[in-house]
Amino acid sequence: MIEEQRIIDFHGHTGRQDRYNWNDDPTAILHAMDKAGIDIACLFNIFHPDGTTGNDITARFVAAHPDRFVGFAYVSPTMPERMVPELTRAIDELNLVAIKLYPPYTQWDLHEPIWHPIYEFANARGLAVIFHTGADPHSHPSLLAACAAQFPKANFVAGHAGNIAEPRRAAIQVAQTYPNVYLETCSTFRTPGVIEKLVNEAGPDRVLFGSDISLMDPRPQLGKIITAHISEEAKRMVCGANAARLLGI
Amino acid sequence: MSTQFTFRPRVPVFDANVRVGDLHYEPSACRNREQLLAEMDRHEIEKALIYHAHTEELSPVDGNLFLEEWLGDEGRLFPQWSIMPTAESMAQVQRLHDQGRVRNVRLHDTRGAGLPFRAWAYGPMLTWLSEKRIPLWIPVPDADADELATTLQAYPDLVTVLVGAHYLHALLVRPLLTALPNTYLELSRFEPLGEVEALCSEYGSERFVYGSWYDRYAMGPMLFYLHHTELNDTDLALICAGNLLRILQGEGQHD
User: Fold this and answer.
1) pTM higher than 0.80 for the full model?
2) CB distance B171–A229 less than 8 Å?
């Protein structure tokens, strides 16, 4: 909690990748969150294409600290027959509340038809879908325009807000065009002025704080928002109020 | 320290890693020293060590000349001269040293330069820096870790500051700090979960310096991070300014 504002981190991972010393130790995660005043972290596991294995890991992780973590479901079109059944299980039985997709782990651009059963599922239930977005062709945020137009009751979140300048401009443009597109802030590219640009051009109600915890420590990523040259009201919206509204929590 | 929506550092801050000027392919958003000082004021950063962007890929010799116009005389911006192991670059830095103006130098992109960071190529430069007790900044992303360890171990009196380690370099950091007792780690990009506190616990806070690497990265986030850790104010003050001051005074050796 920061000055009575609940802080929600919209982008986090379960699982580990030892080459980066990336370890989802809940003690370390909660320590970092507590030191920065982060109340809730949204977590997902993108390391298992069946969806089931990673979603079960995420659900167990959340169950150990249900007041601190919220789980998102992951599925992959590399196993397309499993997508909707696994989403149904993850949302209805595991109580995960949104969907994470990672196009770089596939061979399809994020707007191609193979993904559409996921978007239809999200559209029918009014769920948020967060993508990795960046410069690579499968994940370019300009592709979100087609999704947002075709599935207006789903909310689409550009993870990393495109990450670097050109895709970031595209992400902002899509958010300006479609009311169901949001921009999430985590990135190791902490370029000066990015948070200000997202807030000023897409609107403070369309930007979500994220950190990439546990790959990265959430504190510098929260520091990007806190030390940005934006109003306190905008910081409150970005750091928690928008996510609470989007997730209904 | 409880978090507030307005952040102010609680210890004096001397930024160990600031870039000024334009890259040849990317103009800087910070156009002049007044804007740089204003950004430092916004984050309550008292002093900064600055190098010129032109030195990175084009010319340390020309870039050092361009740096002059940024320095001023209010005692807040301190020069970081860039150096290469060429006769002209060495002569330039040695002239500046003769004028009493060299407290540190920076070596860019040894991989990109195509000259391996080995004693046979860099020996005269490293010997001179060691003899003159001039600390050397080296960006980790642009160097070969094996060359760093092997070469610098042959110059045990040379103080070095390794800059810009990223999570991609997470496995390199501990072996380098262990192998090189007189090496410091600059923290501008070091974001692996909990690792600043862990490294300070393992190696001591005297091995680390705060840098933002502005204008490549925003000035405030890492400073905010350092103020929201387990570090006590003594350790925080060392990382935010004290260690850098000691290094620049030629007193950076640990062994």
Assistant:
1) yes
2) no
